[in-house]
Write a structure and sequence with these properties.
Largest sheet: 5 strands, antiparallel
Shape: globular
Mean pLDDT: 94
CATH superfamily of the largest domain: Cytochrome P460
Number of helices: 10
Low-confidence stretches: 13-17
Structural class: alpha+beta
Radius of gyration: 23 Å
CATH topology of the largest domain: Chalcone isomerase
CATH architecture of the largest domain: 3-Layer(bba) Sandwich
Order of helices and strands: HHHHHHHEEHEEEHH
Number of strands: 5
CATH class of the largest domain: Alpha Beta
Strand order of the largest sheet: 1-2-3-4-5
Bound molecules: heme C
Length: 263
C-alpha cells in the first residue's frame, strides 16, 4: 500500500522534477533573447532588464505571466507566446547560472538583428499615398502614414503586402495651446508643429534571412530616420520585429485596414 502510493506520487511529480537543460537555454538565448537581454544576461539598454543571476523561479513565473497576458508588455508578450514550458525552464536555468553584472555594464546589439536594409524613400511625398493619421495624446504627437503603390494596390485587393512594399510614417510634435495641450483642427486631428522623425518598414526578397524565426517578420525590415533622412543611431531592430510579429495575419502592420480602405 505504502509503496504504491509513493510510486504514484513519484509519477505525478516526474514532469516537474526533470532537470532544466542549461545548454539548450544558452543556445536559445544566444540567437533570440541576446538581441535585447545580452548573450550573458546583461541587457543592451536602460529600458531592458538584466537577467543574469536572476532566480530561475522568478524568470519562469514572469515568462508564464507574459505568455498568458496577465503581465502586459507588448514586446515580451510577443516573445513569450512562442516559448514552450521546457524552453522557459531552460532559459531560466541558464540566466540563473550566470554571474550578475555591475550597474553600468551593457551588451552590444546583435549585429545581424540590428542591421536594417531599409533606405529612406526619397520623393515619397509625390509618389506614395497618404492613407491615415493618428493622434498620440500622451506623446503630444500626430503621425501621418504613407504607402507606396505596391503596398496600396495589394491592400486594396485584399492581398498580403508583397515584396516591394514600403510604409512610412511622419512623426510630428503637436502645436500646443497656452495650457500646453495639443491644438486640434476641425476634424479633431492635432495641428502639426515640427517634424521629429520618420519610421519605415519595407520588404524585399531575402531581407529576413538573417533573423531567427522567433523575431522574423517574413521579409520585412524596419528603420527610424532623422529629420535629415539619415538612419537614427541606436535603434535596435529586434524591438520593431518583436512588437510587429503578432500581426502576421495583417502583413505585420497595425494599419492594414486603413490602407485597404483608403481611396
Ligand atoms: C526585442 C527585445 C527583447 C527580446 C528579443 C527579449 N526580451 Fe525579454 N524583455 C524585453 C523588455 C523590453 C522587457 C521589459 C518588459 C516590461 O516593460 O515589463 C523584458 C522583460 C523580460 C523578463 C521579465 C524580467 C523581470 O525582471 O521581470 C523576462 C523573464 C524576459 N524578458 C525573458 C526573455 C527571454 C527568455 C527572451 C528570449 C526568449 C527574451 N526575454 C527576449 C525585451 C526583450
Ligand atoms: C511596442 C510595440 C511597437 C514597437 C516596439 C514598434 N512598433 Fe511600429 N507600430 C506599433 C503600433 C501600435 C503601430 C500603429 C500606429 C502607431 O503607433 O504608429 C505601429 C506602426 C508602425 C508603422 C506604420 C505601419 C503599420 O504597421 O501600421 C511603421 C512604419 C512602424 N510601426 C515602424 C516601426 C519601427 C521602425 C520600429 C522599431 C524602431 C517599430 N515600429 C517598433 C507598435 C510598435
Amino acid at each position: 500500500m505504502k509503496a504504491s502510493l509513493a510510486l504514484s506520487l513519484a509519477i505525478l511529480a516526474a514532469p516537474f522534477s526533470q532537470a532544466a537543460d542549461v545548454e539548450a537555454g544558452r543556445a536559445k538565448v544566444a540567437v533570440v533573447c541576446a538581441a535585447c537581454h545580452g548573450p550573458a544576461g546583461v541587457s543592451v539598454s536602460e529600458s531592458i532588464p538584466n537577467l543574469a543571476a536572476q532566480r530561475a523561479g522568478y524568470i519562469e513565473a514572469q515568462l508564464k505571466a507574459l505568455k498568458d497576458g496577465s503581465r502586459k508588455a507588448p514586446i515580451m508578450n510577443a516573445i513569450a507566446t512562442q516559448l514552450s514550458p521546457e524552453e522557459m525552464a531552460n532559459v531560466a536555468a541558464y540566466f540563473a547560472s550566470l554571474p550578475g553584472a555591475g550597474a553600468s555594464a551593457k551588451s552590444d546589439f546583435l549585429a545581424n538583428i540590428a542591421k536594417s536594409s531599409v533606405a529612406f524613400p526619397e520623393g515619397y511625398k509625390e509618389k506614395f499615398a497618404k492613407y491615415h493619421t493618428i493622434n498620440f495624446p500622451a506623446a503630444k504627437q500626430v503621425r501621418y502614414y504613407y504607402a507606396n503603390d505596391v503596398a496600396a494596390r495589394a491592400a486594396r485587393e485584399g492581398k498580403a503586402l508583397p515584396d516591394g512594399s514600403v510604409l512610412l510614417a511622419e512623426v510630428y510634435s503637436a502645436k500646443l495651446d497656452g495650457s500646453q495641450n495639443p491644438m486640434a483642427d476641425e476634424k479633431g486631428f492635432f495641428v502639426p508643429d515640427k517634424l521629429v522623425a520618420y519610421t519605415a518598414m519595407e520588404r524585399e526578397a531575402g531581407w529576413g534571412k538573417d533573423f531567427p524565426d522567433m523575431l522574423r517578420n517574413e521579409n520585412w525590415n524596419y528603420a527610424v530616420f532623422t529629420t535629415a533622412k539619415q538612419p537614427r543611431p541606436g535603434v535596435n531592430q529586434a524591438e520593431c520585429l518583436a512588437c510587429h510579429k503578432p500581426l502576421d495575419k495583417a502583413s505585420y502592420t497595425f494599419t492594414l485596414k486603413e490602407l485597404a480602405a483608403a481611396r
